[in-house]
Structures are given as C-alpha cells and as structure tokens.
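Subject: Sanity check before I submit

Could someone independently write out the structure tokens for this chain? I want to compare against mine line by line before I put it in a report. The sequence has 396 residues.
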Amino acid sequence: MKDKIRLGVIGAGSVVREIYQHLFFHSRYSAILEIAGVADPDPVCRDWFGNLAGLPASRRFTRHRDLIAAGGLDAVQVNTPDHLHAQPALDALAAGLDVVVPKPTAATLKDAHAMVAAARAAGRFLGVDFHKRDDPRVVEAAARYQSGRYGAFQAGVFYMLDKLLVADPNHEPRFFASPDFAANNSPISFLTVHLADLLLQIVPLTPTAVRAIGHRHKLPSLRPIPVEGYDVVDTEITFDTGATAHLLTGWAIPNTAWATTVQSGRLICSEGLIDLELDRPGLRETHADGFAEINPLFRQFGHDGLVSGYGISNPGCLYEQVLARHQGRLSAEDLERALAPRALGLPTTLVLEAAERSLALATRTRAGSSLGGSVDLQELAAKELGTEVAGRYGFA
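---
Independent answer below. Compare away.
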C-alpha cells in the first residue's frame, strides 16, 4: 500500500519559505510526503528549494508544465501568485494528479469553478489551505456563535495589517521575490481572504454585496523604488440579513510594530460581543532584536525540531486526505464534502473578486484614496457562471 505522496511543488517563493518548507521537511506530516520535483521561473527560488529537498537537476524545472510532463508525481502543490493558481491546477488535474493550493482558491469565481469542475470530472482531490479555519480561537468562536449564544450577528470590524517590509521592494531581505508584487496585488487576495473566510466560518450567512475603499499614501512614497499599490483596503460586506462587516487589510504599518502582522476583530451581536484577540497569541518576547508578539498557535517550533501549529495542521490534513484517496480509504462522501463550495472557499472567492472589481471602478480622490461602488454578488455570480451554475452554488 502506498505510504507516501510523490509531490511536485509549483512555485518556491515566500509562502514556501514562511510556511511550507516546515510542513514538507520538519512536521509530523513530512513522513507521508516525498518531494519529487520543483518548478519556478526564478532560478534563485528554484535552486534554494531544490537544494533543500535534495533534488537532482533533472527534477528542477522552469515551467510547471514540464514538471507535470516529466511524470513521477501523485500530486502538486501550487504556490504561484494568487491570480495564477488556476492554470497549473487545471493542468495537473488534467494529468490525473491531486492538487493543493494556498488560499485563495483563485482570483475569480470563474477560475475557482473551473478548478472544482476539473477535479470532479477527473475524480481527483482538490484542497485549499485556509489555515485560519484551524485557529482554535476561530473554532471556538464559531461553535459559540452557532449555538445561538450571542443572538443575531449585526456588525463586525476586523483588521489584519502587515509591516511595511512585506510590501517594500527596497527592504533587505525582500519579502516577495518580485519587486512589483504589491503593485500588481492589492492586500485583498493576500490578507482580506483570511478575514473574509474566517468570518464566513463563524457566521454562516450569505454575503450579498461588497464595497471597497483603498488608500495609497505610503507605498508610492517609497524610494528608490516606489510602489503604485494600496497601503490599506477597507472591504465592506453586506449580508442577506442586513448585517455588515468591515475588513481592513494592508501592509504599510511601521516596521517597529510588535509583530509582522497586527490583527484582531470584533463581532457585535444582538445578545453580546465576540472579541477575537488574534493579536495576543500568548507569548511576548523582549530581546536584543526588539519587542515582539510570538504566535505559537500558528507556527510552533518544538525542541525536537518539529514544527506544528494551525499553519501546518491545515495543509497537513489536506495531504492526509490525498494519501487516503490513494490508499482507497477516502469515501465518495468524504470526497464530496472536500469538494463542496464552502470547503473550497467559493463564497470567499466571490467576495474577493467583488472587492477587486469595486476598486477597479473606484473614483480616485486628490488625497490618494479610491472610493469603490457597491458590487451585487448575485449579479456578479450569474454573470460569471450563468444563472443555473450560480444557483447550484447558492449564489443566485
């Protein structure tokens, strides 16, 4: 019986450096993973990961199609920029491989639907790493809210703000391999996705409209390389009950902040409040390097060399399902649950696409802000998928 998944890694940039290298090589899931190839157009990233995995030159590729065509794989993990998830996933599924991608599923609802349809047609597994779903604080908040303890959700405010160094191409070491990442990607796909998805996990309502406001002040002032990108984006979501939530995300707070990501949230309900103290994970460090909040819930480095935490367990569990499928232990019902719209984050994808569309049609103020209009999610889903398919997903 197969006891390892031969995995091809497509993209070896920041997300692999920060999260997946620990999953692949230093976690309890490493025993079921055999890294069998890498593809990345950047030779620095490609060879860094290839050396880490001990891959011969013949298993290091510039293009993902060459990695897939070379064979010897059971599955691939797609770590490309967010808006480029769809094509490698579709190519891998067409070749009979299982696929895992980090959040978000895709940049558009149409692409996400194509990925789900391809997985169903091929009878393959498709999984998306929404690791905040495994944050014990989110799990507990969801259970308590859905028990009726707090009454009806009325309004919410969340924020997730990165240090400037994450988006600053002038900072050394550079966080993103590409110097124009923040110019080509708003904080929506990288950060808002987390907040939108965790909110939908806690409060399982139907989002009906989205409006986004973006601010450009700090990033364009950077030197010598300015960034024509957003410092902060405020995404407002309206639900079918009339409830609203504001999700504020960005990457321009000073590098002196106490954590790489400063984050928290509050849900206001008819019978009480829920405060998610995401910014207070439980370990505060004072060191010669500075003052910092350490989040061992997300990523915990054990004295035995193993890395754990919800940032590892969520994708790790996806690979356990992949292995179960190859061993004939994943039932048809389990596969159906794995491919369900909410499991694969299709409502989240719809919210993100609407926010990006709102910004694209925004009115720019002299002060550097972009005021987007409201986007109707039912209309957007019907336009992208057709009324029948949108209805099957619960979007029409």
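---
OP: Matches mine. For the report I'm noting this point. DSSP finds 13 helices and 19 strands in the chain.
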